[in-house]
Design goal:
Elements lengths: L3 E2 L7 H15 L9 E4 L1 H15 L2 H14 L8 H10 L3 E5 L4 E5 L6 H20 L1 H6 L6 H25 L9 H18 L1 H4 L3 H25 L3 H7 L5 H5 L24 E7 L3 H11 L2 H7 L3 E11 L5 E9 L2 H18 L4 E5 L3 E6 L2 E8 L2 E8 L2 H5 L2
Parallel strand pairs: 2-4
Antiparallel strand pairs: 1-3, 3-4, 5-6, 6-7, 7-11, 8-9, 9-10, 10-11
Length: 400
């Protein structure tokens, strides 16, 4: 999770109690016990971040994620994903609720005043929710590569953001966000600008990292707003009892709760499968498509095409002999017309992510060619687009 800039001086136990009581009034969630806190140095914070990453993500998982993101064009080819993650979190002099230790952590130094109050409400919102729904179990449930985890994180952070802003609006005598969606829409652009100005590492990170880091806070906030408008105070429990399964549900709250998760489309076949071993697999979601199209096509086209997503999956393979990586993926869209539109935009993705991309065939239903990572074959078949990238023998072999 992102950690907010901390207070210059850690709040007292009495201040913490008053804020948790306020959160209980806003959400209807009872405070069952006092929330303990600890103040740590900036050096201890950086170590905490590094230790947390070491504990939660294995080196081979980082390598697999890094390789997949490179092949898909979501991060630069020479990008160090682990270092960037540590730097992004480490640059924030932070206050956060550690849901594993069930304790507030405050870092020495930082902001005060308005930001101190806002941060305290946000992080203690996690603590109050944890007393009812066990955030460690809630956040860790499911595969790390699955976008259901991103959706769950959006629930947790979006809810805390909503409570934080609701607290500020009420203190300023502005009524309630529950009946004032316009105020929320006005706040969002300023929040994004604040993140860019406050955190230099974040501002210069690849689009994929910036978007996925901010998504739980911004999209999650709007998702919580929609839930409050629909369920009132019950929304704070409802979203945790029945969380969305996909980023599509978060982006389009009207699709939540989904009656069933759409089945992932079948992945394209690879030649000589026995020569390959699976390294990782996961979901390609609407958020992934949105970022990919925004980066290589345009934000307008991303806004138009990404919502047509219905299901998606990927698999990272590796040659058993030379360890050459290949990624195969499939995305189901709303209709055959949507699939062909996505395919035409994906040609621009191919051109943008490789310095040299040569097409042997570029038709409304097939992209065939080679880039620096190897051959590629991307085909629209009905409402599904299937792709294989990193083919060792180039497009001739991929035609078979």
């Amino acid at each position: 999770m992102l950690a907010f800039r901390a207070a210059a001086q850690a709040p007292s136990a009495d201040q913490i109690r008053k804020v948790t009581d306020e959160i209980a009034r806003i959400t209807g969630l009872e405070v069952k016990r006092a929330v303990p806190s600890e103040t740590i140095t900036r050096e201890a914070w950086k170590k905490w971040v590094d230790d947390e990453i070491r504990r939660t993500v294995k080196p081979e998982e980082i390598r697999a994620d890094e390789t997949t993101l490179r092949l898909l064009g979501l991060i630069p080819q020479d990008f160090d994903l682990r270092k960037a993650t540590v730097d992004l979190l480490g640059e924030q002099a932070a206050a956060l609720y550690d849901h594993r230790r069930r304790k507030m952590l405050f870092v020495e130094g930082g902001a005060a005043g308005f930001m101190q109050e806002a941060v305290l409400v946000h992080e203690l919102s996690h603590a109050v929710a944890d007393q009812h729904f066990d955030m460690r179990h809630f956040l860790d449930k499911g595969a790390k590569t699955d976008e259901s985890q991103t959706a769950r994180l959006a629930v947790v952070e979006g809810q805390a953001m909503w409570i934080m802003l609701e607290s500020q609006v009420q203190r300023m005598g502005g009524g309630s966000l529950a009946t004032n969606r316009t105020a929320l829409d006005l706040m969002l652009p300023a929040m994004g600008q604040l993140a860019a100005e406050s955190y230099p590492v974040f501002a210069h990170a690849p689009l994929y990292l910036r978007e996925t880091l901010v998504f739980p806070y911004t999209a999650g906030l709007l998702f919580q707003q929609a839930a409050v408008e629909r369920f009132g105070k019950q929304a704070f429990s409802e979203v945790l009892r029945h969380p969305p399964n996909t980023t599509s549900e978060v982006l389009h709250p009207g699709r939540w709760p989904a009656a069933a998760v759409a089945a992932a489309p079948a992945l394209p076949a690879v030649e000589n499968p026995k020569s390959m071993k699976k390294i990782s697999s996961g979901t390609l979601g609407e958020l992934d498509l949105r970022i990919l199209l925004k980066q290589y096509a345009s934000e307008k086209e991303a806004d138009q095409v990404a919502p047509l997503w219905r299901a998606g999956a990927f698999e990272l393979l590796e040659n058993r002999k030379n360890r050459r990586p290949t990624v195969r993926w499939a995305v189901a869209l709303e209709s055959p017309e949507a699939a062909q539109r996505f395919l035409s935009l994906y040609a621009r993705v191919i051109e943008g992510k490789w310095r040299t991309a040569a097409f042997d065939e570029r038709s409304p239903s097939l992209l065939l060619g080679r880039g620096e990572a190897g051959g590629f074959r991307i085909a629209a078949e009905g409402s599904v687009v299937r792709g294989v990238e990193g083919l060792e023998d180039g497009p001739e072999r991929s035609k078979r």
